[in-house]
Design a protein that fits this description.
Two copies of one chain form a homodimer. By secondary structure, chain A is mainly α. The first copy, chain A, has 20 helices and two strands. Chains A and B meet through α3, α4, α5, α7 and α8 of A and α3, α4, α5, α7 and α8 of B. Chains A, B: It is found in: Membrane. Chains A, B: Belongs to the aromatic acid exporter (TC 2.A.85) family. Chains A, B: Keywords: Ion channel, Ion transport, Membrane, Transmembrane, Transmembrane helix, Transport. Chains A, B: Pfam families: ALMT.
Chain lengths: 483, 483
């Protein structure tokens, strides 16, 4: 307490002199460096703090990412300690621990599918390249010491070039990109090694076995502790995107026809379509990895993952339209309230039926059961859209074609009208016509999503939902129109 | 000749019996297997042929890919032969050749930027992890044989987990993903190695020097022989996408207002916007790599690559609208020819001015010189759009607001009209209104592209084009309207 008081006292004494002017004599070069260092440290600490905060949010948002990190640490600790406890440091063995550790580091991926893809590629490519390398070594050894380096060099050049080129072919890149790299690596390593062929066999055996240990450890750890299946992720992404799209559509139409100011929640809801627009790359990589996954949960080994990409494409198609719709809403040029009110009910009805269809499709995918009443909902949607189009048809009344064919007469009439208190009508109705026609286009594209989901249900043999039969006989059938 | 004749004779003799019935006794199990094998071989040969054909097309379309493969082969042959000629197979050296080969295989990428990214990440991560690993080893050694494996195991677990988690942070992933992996790898390898600390220093020195040899060889080969710069690729992609967008817009509008059947060339031209829609991932990865590239050609080290991403986003924004426009064109419900003819000129004019703007922007980026007449072209575009909107305004004539406020009276009137020979007008004009309003929206979005390109010109300090001054004084100024 006494110390504290004295320091406080000291400060108090210094304070009156502590203005910048008085401090100047003390802050020479050293002082400046000190201030600069403090500033730098402050910035670094602040930046590190920001990154840590960001990392914390990532961890909280998806705890599986934290679990993944723990899994990686676990697998590496196990393989490190295993080799540390009983080192195999004989002539070749110096490498063997390294190969196991390297395999774990390189092969362990976030999803099971990606881990499988890398494991299988690594084992097969190592085996093939090893066998080929030993073969070339045999040939080179028999052709004398002079020719040997030439043969080896040419073979490395040829095979490395060919394997590198194969990585540019899309179908190879999607499935065997990592394998091609490992092929080049192993083949070059075998060629560059100065061992004799007999030694090579022993080396190959050791390397394959350590890789096998590494890969099987990875597969065990990735599958046993909270596995993240690429297929499940893709499945989840698709039905979540469908719900986001429905929410966006709902938000957009509500926002357009609402009578009060914008709500914050609504604005956030409306932005969901942007996720759909940007999810192509994620979908493709997940579908690629999902192919390598064994049967898990509700998904077979040969689950039609490609069809998910088609559903994703059809969703993006909808999202393009919703993006245009969204820009209509934010444009300044709006239809007059009386017109908007006139269309509000019909447009809201069409959008809510469209949303019903999207949500039903999302449930179909989520539960992996054929929906019993999707046909009814599609019919309802089509019926509502037809009503909307009818309402639009009934807008202008007469003399339309007659006036447009003669441009001059129209102009004259318009000029006459402009002076009066009636504003030019098409300008007023234009924003509304845009919204309605986009709404119609969106329902057409939702039809595309319905087809894609039905194709998925057929390919993946979805079972009918339990409550299928009774619902089909419900009186909602009366809404089914002839489209 | 005699042989040939006899074989031909034999065949001729066999032919009459060679029908399927006669051959049956011969084609037992062996025959079936033979036929099956032939079928399998045929399929395999056909598939391989298809892949080769595809590869050939890829090579022809972009010979730089073939050159890249040759470069990889060359770098690998050089490093392999270098180590084969003077092997460093002493106590630690067994690994050293391997590290150089591995570095070349793993680090050599298609673009200079990607190669730099991997090289710099690899060297720094190896150095950091090596130093940290040796430090932990020192601590562990001093705490006795019992505690050593525990300390090593825990440190591997902690650092591997932390480094793995850092790869989930977007800013780290974009710049240091590969570095984080190499950090984990090196740290684990140092920890698992049973060497004493003095040996470790020697090992670290050897490993760092081999990695340095590998990386510098890669950088030399990638920069000296036909370098592919990620920055140039991004630059090229952006202005090419701009041209594709202009062509798509041109194709769409021409297709809509054309009077004859569809042309094949036009159809292909129209699809250009799809490239723009799908180029986000490519743009982002190229911008990431471009940051690592040294000054080359017209690009400085600190060229504003991020601004290219913004231009890309604004282009995609336009592409969404063109996508919707494209679906309007293919819809069956078309406006009557007289109406289309009425709007044809104005719409074509607006689209051709928009295309002019896009092409001018593409040239601005291509030549990296400020356009002298972009303002004029934007004004022309705005003027043409204004005219188009005016033409649209002048379409319906009177009594519009009056009829829409009273729904019932409208309906009555419509029913009255439906019986007559005038079809309901809004249905006829609807597709056209859609096209025109999309055209207007597209020009608004082109405005966004103009802003993004101007920002790039400011950030990258584009110089003014040589023919700047005279053009600005040209009489085109009269077209500049007040927007």
């Amino acid at each position: 307490m006494a110390n504290k008081a004295s320091s406080r006292l000291e400060w108090r004494i210094n304070v009156p002199d502590g203005t910048s002017k008085v401090l100047e004599p003390e802050s020479g070069a050293v002082g400046k460096i000190w201030v600069g260092l403090k500033g730098c440290m402050g910035i670094i600490v602040w930046k590190v703090w920001r990154v840590l905060e960001h990392a914390w949010h990532i961890g909280v948002a998806d705890p599986r990412k934290v679990i993944h990190c723990i899994k990686v640490g676990l697998a590496l600790s196990i393989v490190s300690l295993f080799y540390y406890m009983r080192p195999l440091y004989d002539d070749f063995g110096g490498n063997s621990a390294m190969w196991a550790v390297m395999t774990v580091v390189v092969v362990f991926e976030y999803t099971v599918g990606a881990t499988f893809y890398k494991c299988i590629n690594r084992v097969i490519a190592t085996f093939l390249a090893g066998a080929l390398g030993v073969g070339i070594h045999l040939v080179a050894e028999q052709s004398g010491d002079q020719l040997k380096p030439i043969i080896l060099g040419i073979s490395v050049f040829l095979f490395a070039s060919a394997a590198t080129f194969s990585r540019f072919i899309p179908s190879v890149k999607a499935r065997f990109d990592y394998g091609a790299m490992i092929f080049i690596l192993t083949f070059s390593l075998v060629s560059v090694s100065g061992y004799r062929v007999v030694e090579l066999f022993e080396l190959a055996h050791l390397r394959l076995s350590t890789i096998a240990i590494g890969t099987s450890l990875c597969i065990l750890v990735t599958m046993l502790f909270c596995p993240v299946w690429a297929g499940c992720e893709l499945h989840h992404l698709i039905h979540q995107n469908m719900e986001k799209l429905a929410d966006s559509l709902d938000g957009c139409v509500t926002e357009y026809f609402k009578e009060n100011g914008s709500e914050k929640d609504l604005n956030k809801k409306m932005q969901g379509y942007k996720c759909v627009l940007n999810s192509k790359a994620a979908e493709e990589s997940m579908a690629n990895f999902a192919r390598w996954e064994p049967t898990h949960g509700r998904f077979n080994f040969r689950h039609p993952w490609k069809q998910y990409l088609k559903i994703g494409a059809s969703l993006r198609n909808c999202a393009y339209c919703i993006e245009t719709l969204n820009s209509c809403i934010s444009s300044e040029n709006q239809a007059p309230p009386c017109l908007r009110k006139h269309f509000s009910n019909k447009c809201m009805k069409a959008s809510s039926y469209s949303i019903n269809v999207l949500k039903e499709l999302a449930i179909t995918i989520k539960k992996m059961k054929k929906s019993s009443n999707i046909d009814v909902k599609v019919a309802e949607m089509n019926f509502a859209v037809e009503e909307l189009v009818d309402a639009l048809k009934s807008l202008p009344t007469t003399h339309f074609i007659a006036t447009t064919t003669g441009e001059e007469s129209t102009k004259a009439k318009v000029e006459g009208v402009e002076g009066s208190e009636y504003p030019s009508p098409i300008t007023k109705v234009l924003p509304l016509v845009k919204v309605v026609s986009l709404m119609v286009e969106i329902t057409t594209r939702i039809g595309g999503v319905v087809n894609a989901v039905e194709e998925l249900a057929r390919l993946a043999e979805f079972k009918a939902a339990k409550d299928g039969k009774p619902k089909q006989n419900q009186p909602t059938d009366k809404l089914v129109s002839d489209h």
